[in-house]
Structure formats: C-alpha cells, structure tokens
Amino acid sequence: MKKIFLFSTRLRVFLTEIPLLVLLGIVISVHDSAPTVVKFYPLEILIGGVCVFIVIYFFRAVLISKDEIRQLGRFSSRDRATIEEGKTLVLTLAAKRHLTVELYESDEGAAALPFASEYAGRINLFRERTLGDRKTVRKILLYFGLSCEQADGILEKLPKKEAEFESVAVRAEQKHDVTLFFIRMLETL
After folding, report:
1. Across the strands, what pairs with 62?
2. How far is CA 98 from the centre of its chain?
3. Theoretical Cys-Cys bridge with 70: which of 7, 80, 105, 187, CB 3.0 to 4.6 Å?
4. Percentage helix, strand, coil for the chain under 3-state DSSP, each rounded to 5
5. For residue 160, what are the β-bridge partners?
6. Alpha-carbon gap, residue 22 to 10, rounded angstroms
7. Distance, CA of 86 to CA of 185 (rounded, Å)
8. CB-based contact 54:16 (threshold 8 Å)
C-alpha cells in the first residue's frame, strides 16, 4: 500500500554534523602519526558514534496511509491514529514551509464519550508540525482520491472553497496568513 512520507526536521539541523565530520577527517589524517598502539581508534569511534546519534536524535517524520497516520522517529512521541469514516484531517499551511497535520474525531464518535459531549467534533487525535507547501497538500489530496484537476481547483487562491467527492469532502479556507484544508472522510478507505 502506498504511503505519504512528510519529513519534519529542517535540514539545517543536520549542519551540526559538519564540525564533527571535519574533526573526524583531521583525526583520520593524523592517525598514523600516533605514538601509541591503539592510535586514535577510540576518538574516531567516539566521533562517529556522536555523528550517528545526532542523525537518529533529530530525525522526525509523519507517515500518512489510507488507514492511519503516525509519527516516526526514535526520540519522537510516536503518536498514531486511525483514519476512519467521519474523521477530519486538517492541514494548516503557514509561512516558511510550515505544515501542521491534525486529525479530529468525528461528531458521532464524541457521543461515545459522555464527558466530552460539548466538544463534539473538536477532539484532536493527532497533531504534528512538518515541512510542506502547496505541492505537499496537492500530493495528499491526490492520495485521498481526487483527480489532478479537482486538487488544483481546491488549491486555487480563493477565500473559501468547498467540494464533496467520492470518498472525501474537502474544504479550503484562507484565515489571516494561514490556509486551512479540511479533508473529511466520507467512507473508510
């Protein structure tokens, strides 16, 4: 089954690797001139381990499939939620390629929680901030069954646009400096 992968870590975070890699290069270049038997092997192993740890620590991503949405990363919260009929996937497109992906509970599901009857339809099941722009939103719309023309029609710069398709209902709104895309599931895919 095809899935959508959204990277959440800015690439400039990995620029912290450059000084370590330069240091590793210097240590390797003077490796043969070390007077001891073990040479610089412990230092090389330590620097290499720190480089690998930085990559693993800062890696974050969101994986969207037809049946669930989840967060990836060894040191992330690793949240996950199922995408079913009635649930709404909200994509908030802000400046500087910030895309917030949220999944809200359906109105019918809130009745099952007696203490949350006043919050019907506003129960947030998943929230993660990722990197993305209009092309990313278009890719997600295509993934949920819209054609290229339908997705481009939704992405047009209008203050409010709403359409219902075969398996999803899509609404786009422009509020202040962000654009919101609401994708409500009409059936479980």
Report:
1. 6, 71
2. 10
3. 80
4. 35, 30, 35
5. 173
6. 21
7. 5
8. yes
Q: Are the CB atoms for 93 and 73 separated by under 8 Å?
A: no
Count of alpha carbons within 13 angstroms of residue 36, beta-carbon side: 6
Do 174 and 159 touch, CB atoms closer than 8 A?
yes
What number of other Cβ atoms are within 10 A of residue 109's Cβ? Answer: 18
Read off the tokens for 178. 């962000």
Which residues neighbour 165 within 8 Å (Cβ) at sequence distance 6 or greater? Answer: 145, 146, 150
**Token pair 């999944």: residue:** 103
Q: How many helices (H) and strands (E) does the chain have?
A: 5, 10
The Cβ-side half-sphere exposure at 21, using a 13 Å CA radius, reads 8
Residue 176: φ, ψ to 5°: 55, -110
The 10s digit of each residue's pLDDT in 83-131 is 988 889 999 999 888 999 999 887 554 455 566 556 555 788 899 999 9
Q: Which amino acid does the sequence have at 95?
A: A
Tokens of 4: 């959508």
135-184 tens-digit pLDDT: 999 999 999 888 898 888 888 866 778 888 888 899 898 888 899 999 99
Tokens of 115: 């203490």
